[in-house]
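User: structure tokens for this one?
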Amino acid sequence: MSKFTDIEIFEILKKAIANRFLEENSAQSENISDWKGQEITSFQDDLFNKTKSTVSEKWFYTYFKSDFKKLPRIDMLNLLAQYCGYKNWAHFLNVQKIEHFETDKPKNDLIIEEKIELVSSDIDTVNHTENVVNKIKIKEVETSKRANIKLRTVSIVTFVIILLTIITTSVYFAFFSQREYEFCFVDADRQTAVTNSVEITILRDGFTPLYLSTKTGCIKFKSETDTIKMFVNSPYYKQDTFKVNLHQYNQPEKLLLEPDDYKIMLYYYSNSAKDLKQRIDKLNQMIADNALIYQVYDNDFFGVEILSKQQYINLVTIPTTSLKNFSLIESENKNGKIVKLKFKIQQDENDK
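Assistant:
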């Protein structure tokens, strides 16, 4: 097995992956490098169903459909080996070594016969021939013994390497994959917890994106990668991106969000300001005359309704108890005016 390169070993794994997929699925080709479109999607789904994780389409093209110079990361190799029925990548390597070591044994009988023929052509008597053959056999036995000793030595060294790999991998995943991380979002100006709706997208190399949301200001999740990216979006705060190194994690980690003052003012004058005239004047100043205003409904009859500027102002300035459930979804500013606005007024449970 030592004669195999890393690329050749990975090619063996690719064939095993294709065979495993074709046990329960179909594809136009048995060669995984020829798969595309729906076949790749079906493989991603099957991989997730069997291992609770998957690979991206970009990763698939990089390692299954293109030439590459080095193997994927160990966590990806472990994932693919598990898909094929092995415990991990080290287990797969060990099985392959056992299967291929037999092909490396010397063919002693063939060598002996060839040497006997050469000796026979040069000797004069049968006795001399037998003596030469015996000497050759003795040398072959000694050579075979040395080969067996070398093979045992290689086997022991290989076993130690595999054992160390398994231990290292187990320690790594015990520390990272089983650890839960908590992040809390804080208003950068007020140093208070963000209690509005926050939508979070977490990107991890080699994994599908993780989508989370919170109205309490904190999220919890597990990660098997060292570095992640967070894309954060909230109605009253500026969109932001955080790159987090989990090696430097301190529980719980606080992330500051910059408030969008214009959106906060819009929410205040649409909902909280007590002076009716002041609310009307401020909303007239803030909203463009031709602004696109959408009200979103949570029922089976209406999805979205388009309002004029005046209809919106009338709606939010008429004192009703439902305004306490006003929720800003999205707004867009241009030249100091709101040109796009999307909101909803959450229906009370008692009104349903």
